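Hi support team,

I've been running sequence recovery on a batch of backbones for a student project. Most finish fine, but this one hangs at about 90% for roughly twenty minutes before it completes. I'm not sure whether the input is malformed or the queue is just slow. I've pasted the structure tokens below so you can try to reproduce it. Let me know if you need the job ID as well.

Thanks,
M.K.
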């Protein structure tokens, strides 16, 4: 855009629209799921739950103090507690407001991409390389899938390489964090024995079997090596709340007075 200065000279200055275009480009590069585009920490609903209120304000401080290489996060909790909302709110803010390159990926989508890459003669590392270089990576649904040796090896490679590179990684998981005196879920051998009896292509059947066995902890799900890495590279936090989706459905089903 051409403009005149106080001395009467004409000069070129950046168009104000370029700032908006830059913000849009940064946001799109994060690759958030469409349903989470509007998620922020500010519009996260704590539902008068002290655990969620404290966590929200802790994450606001974390965001304010964030620099590249900051310790990451593991957000653990039951489905419907808003873990992905919080993750996307952080990633979007880092990219748009702080200009930090960030990326969102679901673990199930990652393994699908790697399998598809095999058809193009790409190795696991070729797919993972791109994710290792991202300054801030958000990995949703840690522990998702069948828990096969191959899935664990993919996760181990990604976590270990980002750990060694000093990159910030944010995780969400439905699996519980370790706590003193907690009861143990099924062992990996028990899980694998039951999975071997299931149709390996039927994830729903697999999940039903896991529910019958009881839910393993995150450490039991991903293994002690990966869990140890997570403890070193992340703050581990638990969301203690009911499933908001179920609460919303129940409230919609109530008769109008």
């Amino acid at each position: 855009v051409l403009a005149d200065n106080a001395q009467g000279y004409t000069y070129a200055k950046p168009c104000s629209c370029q700032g908006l275009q830059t913000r849009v480009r940064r946001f799109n590069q994060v690759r958030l799921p469409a349903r989470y585009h509007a998620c922020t920490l500010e519009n996260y609903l704590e539902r008068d739950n002290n655990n969620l209120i404290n966590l929200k304000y802790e994450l606001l401080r974390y965001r304010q103090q964030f620099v590249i290489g900051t310790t990451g996060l593991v957000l653990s909790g039951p489905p419907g507690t808003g873990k992905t909302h919080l993750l996307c709110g952080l990633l979007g803010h880092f990219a748009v407001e702080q200009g930090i390159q960030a990326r969102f990926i679901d673990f199930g989508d990652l393994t699908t991409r790697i399998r598809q890459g095999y058809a193009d003669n790409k190795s696991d590392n070729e797919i993972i390389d791109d994710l290792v270089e991202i300054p801030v990576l958000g990995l949703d649904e840690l522990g998702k899938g069948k828990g096969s040796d191959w899935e664990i090896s993919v996760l181990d490679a990604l976590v270990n390489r980002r750990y060694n590179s000093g990159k910030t990684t944010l995780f969400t998981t439905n699996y519980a964090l370790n706590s003193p005196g907690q009861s143990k879920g099924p062992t990996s051998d028990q899980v694998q024995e039951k999975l071997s009896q299931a149709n390996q292509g039927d994830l729903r059947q697999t999940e039903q079997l896991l529910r019958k066995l009881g839910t393993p902890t995150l450490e039991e799900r991903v293994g002690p090596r990966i869990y140890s890495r997570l403890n070193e590279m992340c703050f581990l936090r638990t969301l203690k709340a009911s499933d908001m989706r179920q609460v919303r459905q129940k409230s919609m089903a109530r008769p109008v007075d």
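--
Follow-up from support: It reproduced on our side and the slowdown came from queue contention, not your input. The two ends are 59 Å apart (CA to CA). No action needed from you.
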